[in-house]
Design brief:
- One of its GO terms (biological process) is proteasome-mediated ubiquitin-dependent protein catabolic process.
- By secondary structure, the chain is of the alpha+beta class.
- The chain has helices spanning 4-14, 21-35, 157-160; strands at residues 39-43, 65-74, 77-88, 91-99, 107-112.
- It has a domain at 4-112: Protein Transport Mog1p, Chain A (3-Layer(aba) Sandwich).
- The longest helix has 15 residues, at 21-35.
């Protein structure tokens, strides 16, 4: 199974262009499949081309709908997975279905994608408990040479300057 580093490597190698926050999440889902050894066989209008393997061109030509078909040869059998994504406001509905192996049970996932999604160390705006003043570093105690962040970690190598300290 792919880890976050292999998924990020696929994203960096692809150099995709995004038009919305939903595009970013959908491309992360796509990268997960590629990192797990699946081959993209169709996306966008290429769903009907019949080619064995296609490029990623046109994957986000529709503003709120995305579709992918993946194939993977595994232990003598071919797995085919159809993935459909639909943007509904600030939610992204992801439906995946493995086709042709008798296990045709769909997998559904709903991901919250707030508008302008980005990393925010203070949390989402307007949600109580994430106010900027709530996460204030305690002041340095008089006469203490310990950094406030390390005050409660007396045994760690970072505190003592031991072998793990660089």
């Amino acid at each position: 199974m792919a880890n976050e580093n292999s998924v990020m490597a696929v994203i960096r190698a692809s150099r995709p262009s995004f038009r919305s926050s939903h595009d970013k999440v959908v491309f992360a889902v796509h990268s997960f499949f590629l990192a797990n050894g699946y081959s993209l066989t169709a996306t966008g209008r290429a769903l009907f081309s019949g080619d064995e393997e296609v490029g990623i061109d046109g994957w986000n030509e529709s503003e709120d709908r995305y579709g992918f078909v993946y194939k993977k040869a595994d232990e003598g059998s071919k797995k085919t997975v159809v993935v459909k994504c639909l943007a509904l406001g600030d939610k992204l509905a992801v439906d995946a279905l493995r086709v042709g192996d008798g296990n045709d049970e769909p997998v559904n996932l709903q991901i919250g994608v707030p508008p302008g999604a980005r990393f925010d160390p203070y949390g989402p705006p307007g949600v109580s408990g994430f106010e900027p003043n709530r996460f204030v570093r305690p002041p340095r105690r008089p006469g203490s040479d310990t950094h406030p962040d390390l005050h409660f970690f007396h045994d760690g190598s970072d505190f003592s300057g031991g072998p793990g300290f660089i």
